[in-house]
Amino acid sequence: MTELINQPVPSAPPRSQWRDIWDQFKTHRGALIGGIVFVVIVLAVFIGPWLWPYDPTFIDIRSRNQNPSWAHPLGTDQLGRDMLARMMAGGQTSVSVGITAMLLALFLGSLIGVLAGYFKRLDNMLMRTTDLFLALPLLPLLLVMVLLFREPLNAAFGPETGIFILIVTAIGITSWMPTARIVRGDVLALKEREFVLAARSIGTTNFRMITRHVLPNVMSPIMVSATLGIANAIITESALSFLGLGFPPDFPTWGRLLFDAVDYMQQYPERVLWPGLAISLTVLSVNYLGDGLRDALDPRIRGR
Questions:
Q1: For residues 255, 257, 259 and 264, what is the CA-based torsion angle, rounded to 10 degrees?
Q2: pLDDT above 80 for 10
Q3: pLDDT of 186-206, one tens digit each?
Q4: Which class for 197: exposed (0-12), middle (13-18), buried (19 or more C-beta within 10 A)?
Q5: Which of 10, 155, 274, 282 has minimal Cβ neighbours within 10 Å of its Cβ?
Q6: Chain centre to alpha carbon of residue 287
Q7: Any idea where the ABC transmembrane type-1 domain is (predicted)?
Q8: What is the Cα–Cα distance from 261 to 242, expressed in whole angstroms?
């Protein structure tokens, strides 16, 4: 009996940090639903075309302007092209533009924010540059960039690839400023924390300090900026396409589908409804997803 009492009680294994993040994330019902909706949309636009028999560019004049049916669940357009196939193809372009432009803006914003917050001698120059970009009127600037560089890029890479590179670059280099300001503020606060001072006292290099101690602690605002960046890029691309300055007419995007449907809005209002609903659902789901990720990744909020 004495031997049984003196035996050490086995301790429970330590919980994984990612398990804590997941437990916090799934308590946010809106974020969970938003994540599911976003994943469903991404799978539908990237896998759906492999399963759907119609080509989005196939023209069948005999089937033009058809109402929704079993053969064409979303109907056909003025040239007889299947609207469901065009919606999926347009979603591929819009989501790809959103994710790629977000990654570019996130890289630039995080880099400038960390450098400005960590290195005092760079702070003033980088923040004044950020203020300069914030003062620029973004939509006119985007329009000027598209008009100036569209033809050279189209000649170098082709009409689809060239306009994709142009729009992603234009959105990315005009969207990094909020991320930079948020990251800089967090780095300024982290730089004076005890664990950073302790790491500096033992001779930790600046590069290792940033990668091991600073960046992991600013992941929460970076992830929120990432999700908001996807939504902003999709809306911006849709606005450019709606103005007729985006992808070529035969290359569908959600914004281009809205532009093409304006002339037929009174006779066929569903042509405006479907791309508008897709844009709204994607942006809303991404915003909810970012809200949940912010709460789950912030150690000060996690566990409440």
A1: -150
A2: no
A3: 888 888 787 777 877 787 777
A4: exposed
A5: 10
A6: 10
A7: 91-290
A8: 10
Q: What is the pTM of this model?
A: 0.81
Q: What are phi and psi for residue 241, nearest 5 degrees? A: -65, -40
Which DSSP string corresponds to 190-237? Answer: HTTSHHHHHHHHTT--HHHHIIIIIGGGGHHHHHHHHHHHHHHHHHHH
Nearest to 227 by CA among 30, 34, 5: 34
In 3D space, the residue among 281, 203, 247, 267 whose CA is nearest the CA of residue 66 turns out to be 267
- The secondary structure of residue 263, as a DSSP letter, is G
Beta bridge partners of 82: 76
Output the furthest CA–CA distance in the chain (Å, rounded): 91
Phi, psi of 70 (to 5 degrees): -65, -35
Helix, strand, coil shares, percent, the chain, to 5: 75, 0, 25
SS3 state at 76: strand
Angle between helices 159-172 and 219-242 (to 10 degrees): 130
Taking the C-alpha atoms of residue 302 and residue 296, their distance in angstroms, rounded to an integer, is: 6
Q: Tokens 């400038």: give the residue.
A: 112
Q: pLDDT tens for residues 116-150?
A: 888 888 888 999 999 888 888 877 888 888 888 88
For 213, how many CA atoms within 13 A lie in the half-sphere containing its CB?
21
